[in-house]
Write a structure and sequence with these properties.
- The protein is of the alpha/beta class.
- About 30% of the residues lie in helices and about 20% in strands.
- It has a 9-stranded parallel sheet. The chain has a 5-stranded antiparallel sheet with strand order 24-25-26-31-28. A 3-stranded antiparallel sheet has the order 6-15-10, with no helix packed on it.
- Helix 4 packs parallel to helix 6, helix 12 packs across helix 13 and helix 16 runs parallel beside helix 17.
- It is globular, with a radius of gyration of 26 Å.
């Protein structure tokens, strides 16, 4: 990483001294590049980079990383930024406090006023805005199971009482016993901040009128006393554990509901304090049923029949929870100036009948947050984490319908989980193109995700990475997503050490197969880095000409994978022809591309794999451009010029 003083010098040249001074003041909110947009439609065509901040250690280093990105990659998604809970999982937030891991002593030394991680986040967003980047946050519909959020608001979550390998109680009102248990503990121990008074009635203490901030001070202590807060939280956890009270763990995939304790010996863990924890499982699991033991989901709906059959009453939303959830994320957006949200686990749709005929304000929590924030920030967009699975696989009903009903602007998709040019990849690419033309949301051309880069995905990146990047960048009316580390990712024909995978920094595990020792290590794939850098330079030269032009397909992705070459130009004013061989293993034969621009010849401009001197000329007739064979995974750009 560049020294901070050099970064300030570069920023001074890039954005000017006045803008730099303004952006470095955490009291200012530097407007983002889409602030004047009346809608979030910009999110449907943006090229995004996803950053797990833990891999590069601080918000200040995110700014440094952004300096390596071209203007054509104009959005940055930050993985969760809050204090983490069990195993340090970024997705198991334990409070609404910003993760102090992401504080930069270097930045504090350069600008002494930036002495807190909150101020550094504010300034980092300011600087990214000044560089022309939009910035996104995660919106997470769950927390760590014993987070400060859960313990300060038991009624906002579902609870169960376990006795050994049996769930003894999971009734709808169990949270009342939990509240009494926590308050009795507090009366015995006394407030974390001496002399703070509190009511000794659970209904009054946990009521919204008493205030969560005051409740947190009394239960856990002051914000800056991290160790003290954790100690108190552990004591409350211990008290609840002794009586068998546990928040219901979060689930994924139909049927979502209906849990039992997993009785297998290997499904138990004894922690450092001697507490024996049990895993849970779905009673009647389907293909994608999962239980996430460290997480618990907000209680967005009341249960039917006192929860005897684990069924939800979707006609009875828990309005207090919805108001809380929306208000918290709206406050974060307003404080730091985020331009969009990524909806974690957006694929969750629990209604067995699928999308209902009447979609109201309580249909989906991500939709509710997105629309709540848009009342004051109409440009604010919603990027959904769904994988575009088939009906009934990861959600009840049709996932496409759910995305539309949720007002999603774009979605992640699953191209990152497929080898470029494979039959599965070609079919999905074709399907995503159809969706982009027929649905209200835009699927991403995803290269790699910041939270899925692990050894399981190695086989998808053995070749074709230049084709991924080239295609994602120059399909200007499609969004693309690239996780940090893709640009130098090594070819792993067998698993590399864990320190080379960004996914394994979503957690903080010191033992076992997911453990890491030391900081994240960048790959050493200089060949890939240099090729992608050349693609970025091409984008810097021509992107402004084509970004608003739209795409005119000349050879669409073949869903049967009989042809693995694609080609396109611009819809309004064809200036450039892009041709890509998506087959990462074989070169193409000569390709005939329909000649869409009469009177224009195609002159070689760029190749991902060869120099201009080596390029064969394009022959053309009245009907076609005859494109010379492309190497495996090669992308080319031809400039369309008037004949003569």
């Amino acid at each position: 990483m560049l020294p901070g003083s050099d970064v300030l010098t570069i920023l001074n040249k890039r954005i000017g001294a006045k803008a730099l001074q303004s952006a470095l003041d955490p009291g200012n909110s530097f407007p983002g590049p889409v602030r004047n947009s009346g809608t979030p439609a910009w999110l449907k065509s943006v090229n995004m980079a996803g950053v797990n901040v833990r891999t590069i250690q601080s918000f200040w280093n995110v700014v440094k990383y952004a300096l390596t990105l071209p203007q054509s990659q104009s959005a940055i998604h930050l993985l969760p930024i809050w204090e983490p809970g069990v195993v340090g999982s970024l997705y198991g937030m334990t409070s609404w406090r910003i993760n102090r891991e992401f504080f930069s002593p270097e930045l504090a030394a350069l600008v002494p006023a930036l002495h807190s991680v909150e101020k550094q986040l504010k300034v980092a967003v300011n600087l990214l805005h000044a560089l022309g980047k939009t910035v996104g946050m995660d919106v997470i519909p769950h927390t760590d199971r014993y987070s400060e959020i859960v313990l300060a608001n038991p009624r906002f979550f579902e609870w169960l009482q376990r006795k050994g390998t049996r769930i003894a109680d999971h009734s709808a009102t169990l949270h009342e016993k939990v509240e009494t248990t926590i308050l009795n503990w507090l009366i015995r121990k006394g407030p974390a901040v001496p002399a703070m008074d509190f009511p000794e009635d659970p209904e009054m203490f946990f009521a919204p009128a008493f205030g969560e901030e005051r409740r947190n001070l009394i239960l856990f202590g002051r914000h800056e006393d991290f160790e003290g807060r954790n100690h108190r939280r552990t004591q409350v956890l211990d008290e609840l554990f002794r009586q068998g009270f546990e928040p219901v763990p979060a689930t994924m995939g139909p049927p979502y509901r209906g849990l039992e304790v997993d009785p297998r010996p290997e499904a138990s863990v004894t922690d450092s304090e001697g507490r024996v924890w049990r895993d849970y499982r779905i009673i009647r699991p389907e293909f994608m049923s999962r239980v996430f033991g460290p997480l618990t989901r907000y209680r967005f709906y009341e249960p039917l029949n006192d929860n005897r059959d684990w069924q939800l009453d979707f006609s009875r939303p828990n309005r207090e929870v919805w108001d809380y959830f929306c208000a918290k994320y709206a406050a974060i957006q307003a404080e730091y100036g985020f331009d969009f949200m990524r909806g974690d686990m957006s694929h969750v749709q629990m209604r067995p009948e699928g999308v209902p005929a009447g979609v109201d304000d309580f249909y989906d929590p991500h939709r509710a947050v997105r629309n709540h924030i848009r009342k004051k920030a109409p440009y604010f967009g919603y990027f959904a984490e769904t994988f575009l699975a088939g009906p009934g696989v990861m959600a009840y009903g049709n996932e496409y319908d759910h995305l539309e009903a949720s007002d999603a602007d774009s979605t992640l998709g699953d191209l990152q989980s497929m080898a470029v040019g494979s039959a599965r990849f070609m079919a999905a690419f074709s399907q995503y193109l159809d969706l982009s033309e027929t649905r209200r949301f835009a699927p991403n051309f995803t290269l790699m995700t910041a939270d899925k880069d692990d050894p399981r995905f190695d086989r998808f990146y053995l070749n074709g990475n230049e084709a991924r990047f080239f295609t994602g960048l120059f399909l200007t009316d499609w969004p693309s997503y690239m996780g940090l580390g893709f640009e130098m990712r090594d070819i792993h024909r067998k698993p590399a050490p864990n320190e080379y995978y960004t996914k394994l920094y979503v957690f903080q595990i010191s033992e076992g197969p997911k453990s890491t020792a030391g900081p994240y290590r960048w790959g050493g794939n200089k060949r890939l880095f240099n090729r992608l850098n050349r693609i970025r330079q091409l984008a810097e030269a021509i992107f402004a000409e084509i970004r608003e032009e739209g795409t005119r397909w000349l050879i669409k992705p073949d869903p049967l994978a009989g042809c693995k070459v694609i080609a396109w130009t611009q819809q309004k004013h064809p200036r450039y022809l892009f041709v890509v061989n998506l087959d990462g293993a074989k070169r193409s034969e000569q390709v005939l591309v329909p000649r869409s621009a009469p009177g224009r010849i195609a002159g070689f401009r760029f190749s991902t794999h060869q120099k201009g001197d080596d390029a064969a000329p394009v022959v053309q007739n009245e009907y076609h451009w005859f494109i010379p064979p492309l190497k495996a995974g090669e992308g080319r750009c031809y400039e369309l010029r008037a004949e003569g």
